[in-house]
Amino acid sequence: MERKKPGKIRKAAEEAAEDHEGRLAPKRRRGERGGIAALKEDVCQNCEKEGSLLLCEGRCHGAFHLECLGLPDVPRRKFICSECRSGTHTCFSCKQSGAGVKRCLLPLCGKFYHENCVQKYPPTVMQDRGFRCPRHSCITCQSANPTSICASRNHLVRCVRCPVAYHANDCCLAAGSKILTPNSIICPNHFTPRPGCKDHEQVNVRWCFVCSEGGSLLYCEACPASFHLKCVGIDFPQGKWYCNNCRAGKKPHYTELVWVKFGHHRWWPAEICHPQAVPPSINNMEHEIGEFPVFFFGSKEYAWTHQARVFPYSGQDLSSRAKLRRGRHGIYKEALREAAARFAELKAQKELRQLQEEQKKDKKPAPYKHIKRNRPVGQVQIFTVDLSEIPQCNCWATDENPCGIYSDCINRLLFYECHPAVCPAGERCQNQCFVKRQYPEVEIFRTLERGWGLRAKTDIQKGEFVSEYVGELIDDAECRARIRQAQEQGVTNFYMLTLDRDRVIDAGPRGNYTRFMNHCCDPNCETQKWSVNGDTRVGLFALCDIKAGTELTFNYNLQSLGSGKTICRCGAPNCSGFLGIRPKAISKHSHQK
Predict the structure, then answer these.
(1) What element of type H or E holds 13?
(2) DSSP string of 342-362?
(3) Most buried of 42, 78, 119, 325, CB within 10 angstroms?
(4) How far is the C-alpha of 51 from the C-alpha of 42, rounded, in Å?
(5) CA 266/CA 413 separation, integer angstroms
């Protein structure tokens, strides 16, 4: 009696043939054993072509053409490939079989590896019982952010020759990949140089990528990067050496700007193009797996090249005097100008996409209770003094701006707030911003890479009071307990400012809008400790004239606990790279924009 399953497979193949005019790709169904596991296996493991495929119902979940297996017809019994029958599988990385080959832990994968082979790929996740192979994470996203949980989300395309996967978009997919099906590719790792072709030879720059100086250099074997041994902090390696980017799996991608070495020409700025976006005459030119077309700025010409002859264009190249000095030729100068304009355009597009993605994730800030003044917790006290102890300033009601920003008010100079019952200017006194809460109008908004932020809705004058930093007043013991609890719960955002030796302001659970102000190494606001009615309070004041729509920032130097060594993403020219590290020197005119 004939089994029904092979008949279903044949029928699916026939339907696919009718729908795709000869491109046989069986429609998998959940009712078919092994169908779910092989959903992504849409090419033959032997010939790397699509068509009517027979699915192995063993542990590998492989897919094969009947003709590649030497079978005249679909087997009447369930099909199990030779490796699954023997129990000896081949490592998907090194293509060698033998002892020590283990299967990926994910039940829908079916790929086998030596542990030392699979550990060479950064996206591999090692676990107690085995490992999750790199075919389930985008290597581009993983190299950009190793802790990202989105690396395995969305649609992935996988290389059929090695354990590499990418998201199916031009920002992630490695340029030069050969598209086999919507799910399968051959990645640029399998580029084979043509013998005797000089444009296929490895070429490296003659300066260090760290210090930009020449001399004795260490060359990367996969890209043009070069380094001094002292700049990378290593001894001379034995055998082939690869830079950090290449070891992490970073590849050039489509729409990326690069410097290209082509023929006998100098390094030239160009843009990597998708093959479908170039003229047919260019796309039909002979090229290998791993090669991609580039568009040269200035000359408006196209050529095919590969990873070993390109390196990324960066924002620092916009003002490179060395390149401009060498660029006496008019076409080269025009190429530099066009590349700079295109780089700015792509950067703006990327920031817009990032902003849209961030807005989709968080439509409103995490909940907190808005308060107008500090609230003591536990035994912490708020201090007050008698009116007789509040200092009297030298301003008078007849002054044009009594106790104002540019006045000679002695209280303002000493960071004392005047009291209306003591100040000679009375109600006309302009040094009562804390008590009267004279804040300029602001709004909360979503930044690109730093979560929520605060920006001005009106122009703010240099020296003007922006807001008081308020929250819960806690002691040192409570502060440490809150930090410890936050770390146990995986919380990374802290809102604590040291007020004095015994008190800390925590604006996390309760505070005002200043809790949303981000850190910047070149801020437009600063914190000042003022004495208000005998107690110390923290205010934020403008360091420069701030236009409406500008983000308000201050340096987190005053923050004493909870910051740790966190990467700084302020983007300032003098950025130190990490919170808590002194920023680089900057011009005193940096705020005059």
Answers:
(1) helix 4-20
(2) HHHHHHHHHHHHHHHHHHHH-
(3) 42
(4) 8
(5) 60
Q: 10 Å Cβ neighbour count for 66?
A: 18
Neighbours of 360 (CB within 10 A): 8
Give the pLDDT confidence score for residue 31 in this predicted structure.
31
Number of Cβ within a 10 Å radius of residue 90: 16
Using the predicted structure, report yes or no on whether residue 309 has a pLDDT greater than 80.
Answer: yes
| Correct CATH for 198-346 of 3.90.1150.10, 2.30.30.140, 1.10.3720.10, 3.40.50.2000 | 2.30.30.140
What is the distance between the alpha carbons of residues 472 and 213, in angstroms, rounded to a whole number? Answer: 53
**Under 8 Å between Cβ of 234 and 257:** no
Q: Using CA atoms, how far apart are residues 43 and 289, in angstroms rounded to an integer?
A: 17
Q: Enter the pTM of the model.
A: 0.59
Distance, in Å, from the CA atom of 394 to the CA atom of 411, rounded to the nearest integer, reads 8
Position 19 pLDDT exceeds 80:
no
Options 2.170.270.10, 3.30.465.10, 3.40.30.10, 2.30.110.10; CATH for 369-558 is 2.170.270.10
For Cα atoms 459, 465, 471, give the angle at the middle one, nearest 5 degrees: 120
Tokens describing residue 107: 């039940």
* Sequence letter at residue 325: R
pLDDT digits (tens, 9 = 90+) for 551-588: 999 998 754 344 445 678 888 888 877 776 777 665 44
Report domain extents, the chain: 1-87, 198-346, 369-558
pLDDT exceeds 80 at position 324: no
Task: Annotate 91-122 with three-state secondary structure.
Answer: CCCCCCECCCEEECCCCCCCCEEEHHHHCCCC
pLDDT per residue as tens digits for the range 44-73: 999 999 888 999 988 888 999 999 999 888
